[in-house]
Amino acid sequence: MDADNAAIDEAATAIAGGLTAALSYISHFDTDNVITGDASLVSTAAETVDCYINNGGCSHTCDRSGEQHYCRCPSCWEMSDDQFNCRPMSDKIQTQCHSNAMEITLHKCVLADSHDFTTARMSDGDCAFKKNDDQLTVTMTNPLGECGMQLDYENGQIIYSNKMTIDASKFEGRIVTTPAIDWGFTCIYETDYTVEKAATVTSATLNHDFGAQTGQFAFDFKFYESESFEIVQDNPTYKVGQQIFFGLIMNDNIKLDKLEFAATDCTVSAGDYSFQIWDYSNLNQCLPDKYIGFTHYPTTDAFAKFSYEGFQFRPDGGSTPPEQTISCAVKVCHEDDEDSACKNGCYGV
């Protein structure tokens, strides 16, 4: 009987040391794009842990060395709030949500002796980890809309998500003692942006040095010589009354699948004075008027084109500073959303 108990103990020890439950951890990222969490290395749920039954419910090691049993996490992992499941420490796996890609950086210690990072793959395609110069971390870049990435539109937000699978390391090249890992990653993008820049206006000319304020999606604002929108004016000079051609460009004019965008309004301001030159919801502005002739042209790829006549503010009995700011509000839409700004107002005419 003692021999049988010893055999049972030996088998339980082997199972407890080698069994790792499949993980499914969905991480949401906001402005700093870092997975966060607070937990300890050893669980506090000793009264409910029995290592002899289903590994105590522990995702990793079930420690039965003492009178009470505990769930333990390996190096570079931390205990989740349920005190049974381990997750990578917040500083060991980080995701950045760039304007056109999701970038995942992983410390190799997270997978040490259990899984092979070279087998990591997303739902589809050939996205893979690449070693970094520090030799301690690896990084995978998943372009938005590629490698099986899913696009959803919920509550006014653009949501990109994907699943990563990592195979267990093989013993003697043939057997594994842990299941593969499944991790979920999500990037949430805002849909409202403002692109603006100051310009200097004199009685004769309009001078500007234009840049762009970027959000999670990147936008640029450029001026062009003519209606063809082919030649960019790096240092443009206009006469008041001359038609000014400008474009709003999203993500370097690389269109993301199922996404579109629209300028909902544009305003020119100087000091305490401002004038709205475009309001997509005002159907009277859909066609150029006889004063500033604001015109919107068909959007191609991720490039929206507009023009208007340069002007100055000249209030009675006073003057305005020569510096002006033109700003355009931009809305990013899902193509299947029939109620979006991109399909209504002047864009739906």
Structural descriptors:
349 residues; mainly beta; Immunoglobulin-like; 2 domains; 6-stranded antiparallel sheet; 4-stranded mixed sheet; 1 helix; 5% helix; elongated
Radius of gyration computed on alpha carbons: 29 Å
Number of strands: 22
Sequence of secondary-structure elements: HEEEEEEEEEEEEEEEEEEEEEE
CATH class (first level) name of the largest domain: Mainly Beta
Proper CATH architecture of the largest domain: Sandwich
Percentage of residues in strands = 35-45%
CATH superfamily of the largest domain: Zona pellucida, ZP-N domain
Oligomer: single chain
pLDDT < 50 stretches: 11-40, 202-215
Shape: elongated
User: What is the helix fraction of residues, given as a range?
Assistant: under 10%
Mean pLDDT: 80
Give the number of helices: 1
Q: What is the CA-CA span between the terminal residues?
A: 86 Å
Main beta-sheet annotation: 6 strands, antiparallel
What structural class do you assign from the helix and strand content?
mainly beta
Q: Give the domain tally.
A: 2
How are the strands ordered across the major sheet?
16-14-13-22-18-19
Give the CATH topology of the largest domain. Immunoglobulin-like
What does this structure look like?
This protein has 349 residues and is mostly beta strands. The protein folds into 2 domains: 2-189, Zona pellucida, ZP-N domain (Immunoglobulin-like), CATH 2.60.40; 192-348, Sandwich (Immunoglobulin-like), CATH 2.60.40. Helices cover 5% and strands 40% of the residues. The protein has 1 helix and 22 strands. The chain is elongated and about 90 Å long.
